[in-house]
Amino acid sequence: MIRTSTLFFVLICAVLPAHALVVSGSSFPETCGNQNGSAWAQASGGQGPYTFAWTGPNSFAASTDSIFGLVAGTYTVTATDNLGAMASADVTVDGLQQLPPGFGPTWAGAYSLTGYWGGACEGMCNGAGAFVEFMGYDNGPYSYNFDVPTTFLGLNTQGDPVYSGFCLNDQVNYSYTDALGCGGNGSFIVYGVDYSWYPVVTEVQGACSGGTNGSITLESSGPFAGNLSLVLDGSWVATGTSGNGTTNVVFEDLAAGTYDLSIGWSQTQCMHQQQIVVPDLGPNCGALSGTSWYDVNGDCVRDIGEVGVPNSVLAIEPGGYFALTHGDGSYAFNLPAGNYSLTQTNATLIPICPVTQPVPFAINGADVVVDLANGSTTELDLRMHASGTAARPGFAYTLFGHVSNLSPQVSGPVTVSCTYDPALLFDSANPTPSSVVGNTITWDFPAFGSFGGQAVSVLLTVPVSTPLGSFVNSTFAVTNTLTESSLANNSATVQREVTGSYDPNVKEVRTSSQESSTQYFIGTDNYLDYTIQFQNTGTDTAFTVVVTDTLDATLDMARFEQGVSSHPCTVDFLPGRVVRWTFDNILLVDSTTNEAGSHGLTSFRIRLHEPVLPGTVVTNNADIFFDFNEPIRTPDVTVVTETSTGVNTSTRNDLLVHPNPSSGTISITGLALVSVNVVDLSGREVYAVQMHPTEVVRCDLSALPAGVYAVRVRASDGVVNTVRLVMQ
Fold first, then answer.
1. What is the pTM (predicted TM-score) of this model?
2. Domain coverage including residue 674
3. N or C: less crowded end of the chain, CB within 10 Å?
């Protein structure tokens, strides 16, 4: 059973000596004018025991640590310790005109009445769930009204009402009223055993003609165990069993052919069937593998300390195949017999062995190894990627940053900073920061080696009072003590709209100009940024999470660039333009145990095939599979290419950049901004950031040397304006 509550925290603002008496307060709001608010106080420091005295609206007075039956308003609590020391704090009891949004049913809550988990089956309206709208200021029982036909089944063993008749994937809107007549509204999507539970083929190895060396690897997901059966030409071949949550099921020693796979899930009424083709690779198929590394001494031997080139895209022709190197530079890919060539698409690498690319090779019944020793003249360049989870009032909000050394050059000592939106509340950071000053968090790291990197994260809370529809902006930045070839990629801004209830498993896209999530402007946009969000909403820890994404044919796999991930993972290219992220041993805690720790994400950047023509439709989604969570295919995200209409260049007098001169962070106000670029007097871009339309943007320019710069901003209506900025 999921029980939700809304908490309001107020802390004393005085700065007191260590071990001095401190008092703080918390509250629940009054609803619909029913005089049902409450508050309580906690004291620490000084010497207990403590006594409390409250004053408030309408001559209110009380002398207990907890007070009830309150009207909305501000209450003052004074704590006195055993030595007579006193401390005070103000506690605000908000007044709500309606109950907070409902969160929908718990499908497992129907089990005591139905005998099975309440999720619906594909094409059926057999969903049943228990409704629990418990607040800290609970005034039940509640009455419900739905916008779809339902049947009241009774109360479950916890006393919660259970309704049935919900159709899979439907959106249901409902209202509810407590015993005091205060009402609220909610909506939910009907979950169940839909396509997101179906076994997903993560890899198929073809079989040589007449042989039985093929295999099928499946990710079988769902919160319940499943029984799988594989049939070829009407004859049973093999069976498999999936556990609760995500399970890898591998069928080996298979001949080429079209297989029928069926699966049924225990504790449900649902079954599914699908077909899987094991291709015939001919009589002499084989595997290509190898390692790409940075050969420091150019001897074509990977010596101790020489690092692999990570996330490097390799093109294999003919056939349009792509492979992706792992973090250690290794790669592997199965191919039918034939003559091929291998090319590294990373233009910054200089081939040493083999010195000439494309590298020819042949598959003829034996595995082939092609190692790639590389040099590079690329100058030092650090890149920052950043992303964040959904921002919801009263919930945790996590920011993830990752800085990468894009070159084989060794950096100087590295400093990473995160300046989070001042509307947010800081909880913690990982790894432990070097300093936290105001709303700026700083980490100091040793020098990065070749292609080295570092991940950081910040756990924040969105205050309950944050308005829905507002935006929170946070910026990550990286510097080092040596000169870089470019500073344009040294910062990244995460902007999130504050939302209410949401789908925790979703794919998002923004164009490079950050002006749209649906329109790609030819001549203005250069790439697409995708983020895949996931959350463990089950009842136990997830041990493995796998995300797969079949890339649209319009996307250029050779221009794939891995972004930030919330947890360590490996990335692979699979046949059929599939990208797979595997989070082994992720130990992703469930949301009922730790809501903030139950989230994860991964992101990537990719360009479109050239030339980009107007009217091109780019549609993409992802499949997310993890232990003890209802797996789901994300809704489609679609971008349409359009010819840019040009940029307005009129001057805006309502733009304000302050402070100016500045020695650190500047604020830009007065326009609905979508991008900010800072260039020096030579015209070199030294800072760039994009965001959703917002009227207040804060840019940390403390890394810039003193001098005169031009701040160029683009507004949501296309207007571009430039302001002179002096850095001291």
1. 0.47
2. 656-727
3. C
Can you tell me the distance from the alpha carbon of 344 to that of 71, in angstroms, rounded to the nearest whole number?
Answer: 69
State yes or no: pLDDT of 303 exceeds 80.
yes
| CA–CA gap between residue 52 and residue 21 (Å, rounded) | 13
Q: What whole-number distance in Å separates Cα of residue 127 and Cα of residue 106?
A: 11
Regarding beta strands 86-93 and 453-461, do their DSSP bridges make them parallel or antiparallel, or are they unpaired? Answer: unpaired
Task: Return the half-sphere exposure (C-beta side, CA atoms, 13 A cut-off) of residue 592.
Answer: 12
- How many structural domains is the chain composed of? 7
Q: From its phi and psi, is residue 701 left (phi > 0), alpha (psi between -120 and 50) or beta? A: alpha
- Reduce the DSSP state of residue 610 to 3 states and report it: coil
Q: What is the pLDDT of residues 306-328, one digit of tens each?
A: 999 988 999 999 888 888 898 89
CATH number (domain holding residue 370): 2.60.40.10
Q: Is the dihedral of CA 165, 169, 171, 177 positive or negative?
A: positive
The residue from 134, 167, 193 where one domain ends is 193
The answer to whether 520 and 510 have CB atoms below 8 angstroms apart is no
Which residues are within 8 A (CB) of 444 and not within 5 positions of it... i.e. 6 or more apart? 413, 414, 415, 434
- Enclosing H/E stretch for 440: strand 440-445
pLDDT of residue 632: 66
Q: How far apart are CA 170 and CA 168, in angstroms?
A: 6
Q: Average the pLDDT over each of 132-141, 163-172, 618-627 and give the range with the smallest value.
A: 132-141
In tens, the pLDDT along 102-139 reads: 778 888 888 888 888 888 988 889 999 988 765 555 67
In this structure, the answer to whether residues 421 and 513 fall within a common structural domain is no
Q: Which two tokens stand for residue 198?
A: 């179906």
Contacts of 345 by beta carbon, 8 Å cutoff, 6+ apart: 312, 313, 314, 315, 558, 559
Mapped onto helix, strand or coil, the DSSP state of residue 598 is helix
Q: Are 470 and 523 contained in the same domain?
A: no
d(CA 370, CA 354): 9
- Cα separation values, 338 from 222, 318, 343, 361, 370, Å: 40, 9, 17, 9, 15
Tokens encoding 589: 């805690």
Asked if residue 66 lies in contact with residue 48, where contact means CB atoms within 8 angstroms, the answer is no
407 CB-near residues (< 8 Å, 6+ apart): 348, 376, 378, 379, 380, 381, 450, 451, 485
Start-to-end Cα distance in the chain: 57
Q: Is the same domain home to 640 and 509?
A: yes
Annotate 613-658 with three-state secondary structure: CCCCEEEECCEEEECCCCCEECCCEEEEEEECCCCECCCCCCCEEE
b/e per residue, 41-69, with b = 16+ CB within 10 A? bebebbeeebebbbebeeeeebeebebee
Please check whether residue 93 is in contact with residue 10, taking contact to mean a CB–CB distance below 8 angstroms. no
Q: Which of 354, 375, 396 is the last residue of a domain?
A: 375
Average pLDDT over every residue of 667-678 = 76
Q: Answer yes or no: do 18 and 79 share one domain.
A: yes
Q: 352: which 2 tokens? A: 């040493």
Evaluate whether 399 touches 386 at the Cβ level (below 8 Å).
yes
